[in-house]
Model the fold of this input.
Amino acid sequence: MIIDTFQRGSRYALGALWSEFFPELMKLVEQGEALPDGRYPLAGGPEQGGVMVSVETYEPKDESQARYESHDLMADIQAVLSGDEFLDVFPLQGEEVESMRDNGRDLVFYAEKPEAACRVHLRPGLFALVLPGEAHMPCQRACSNKVKKLVVKIPADKLSAPHCR
Done:
């Protein structure tokens, strides 16, 4: 997982796809709360090997209502444009009990909620990059009753090993 500011995000050398879509992503992020809910293909969209951004406004959940999820093929950028929320992350050990798997959507939910290895307080200007092998529990209530959030789905096999320039 990488947690950083969008301002520093372009410094990461995560491969050609990252370098291609990140400037486009910044144009969306700069719109903040004014960005309409919906889906935004970047770098040609998934059909051309790019990424898909989903923007949604919602009421965050109490921790007891949230679920851990993971993805085998996709990495996520999780970021709030307005409001705030908690994002819990833990590394998968391979012994977790799955409650639901949908391979078509590259989505796994888990039956138990282990103690988080890391809790991120997502606020505007910050992002968390969650990779395959890391389960995450997003959308948890922090201080705000309403959150506008942006999630980027990135083919993980198109990312290079994380390091900062």
Summary: The CA atoms of residues 69 and 109 lie 4 Å apart.
